[in-house]
Amino acid sequence: MRPLPLPPNPMPRFYRGGSRIAALRGLPDGDDRAPEDWVGSVTTAFGSAVVGLSHLEDGRTLPEALASDTEAFLGPEHVAGRDPALLVKLLDANERLPVHFHPDRGFARRHLDTPFGKSEGWVVAAAEGADAVVFLGLRETVELEALADWVERQDTAALLAALNRIPTEPGDTFFVPAGTLHAIGEGLLIVELQEPSDLSVLLEWDGFQIDGRADGHLGLGFGTVLPAADRDRLQPDQLGRLRAGRVDDGRPGVERLFPPEADAFFRAERIRPAPSCPLPQEFSILVVLDGAGRLETEAGELPLGRGATVLVPWAAGEGALEGQLEVLRCLPPAERA
Ligand SMILES: [Zn+2]
Hints:
The protein is α+β, with helices and mostly antiparallel strands. About 20% of the residues lie in helices and about 30% in strands. The strands form four sheets. Strands 1, 13, 14, 15, 16, 17, 18 and 19 form an eight-stranded antiparallel β-sheet that branches. The protein has a six-stranded antiparallel β-sheet with strand order 2-3-4-11-6-9. A hairpin with a 2-residue loop joins β16 and β17. The protein starts with a strand and ends in a 6-residue tail after the last strand. Bound molecules: zinc ion (ZN). Zinc ion binds near residues 100 and 120.
């Protein structure tokens, strides 16, 4: 099975953005209301049966294609059964995103009858302006009553002040475990890897085009969802770990991203072929961040340019990246959910 180019899959959301995605992909600028592009998606937006699914160039949805030949796509050893267990997004914040968090797998199973939570990882692809920051984790431990009070009164100042505010630049990475409070600042283009779900708890909605009081708690009520937030202080060494990468595993041009605890949810490599980089046989989603070159596999080759997104099925066999490229290779979890 040949590598499959993934056409753009723009997603309308309640916040503004999209121009940085269009610029990355070399497309005309849109209306600033599609701030995400879901890449290789078998995931639907919360409450929808179809919105969010990726389409292949032949018109099929990715789940249709996967169902027709699961083993060719995922390989016999894939840990998560018949699901890639991975969602990759391009995310352009043209305004600061509200403070929020995501539930973990245990909560998702107990309350929503779904196997995946939403631990996520960010790779910063562009950072423009003075507000190109991320907010990640609590600076001090917060009692549940205080958190509930900030949400009830929509005390944005208190919520933001409680979080670590971290200036960022292109190349930075962050692992964001489920439960961790966070927000993304204005001016950031991020490639996000995450569990394949769309489960968010909004703590802030004042000034955004969404009614969080109605739609911010997954239909469960804040009394049920707020206790799933991690209210402990994020210690400096923990924060350092969330930002850390991995020791070089010896493959030239390959940088492994995210700390080992992220492996249960997704894995990622930043590859700069020097000038060629071999790719082991594995299902993956490629995002070309910069440059031009090509992907070679046993099943065929594909030219690559900035902004291209490609699904590499297991059955493409071993491969290689060639050229002046910066590619993010996104991989499924290493452990069963
Ligand atoms: Zn998030």
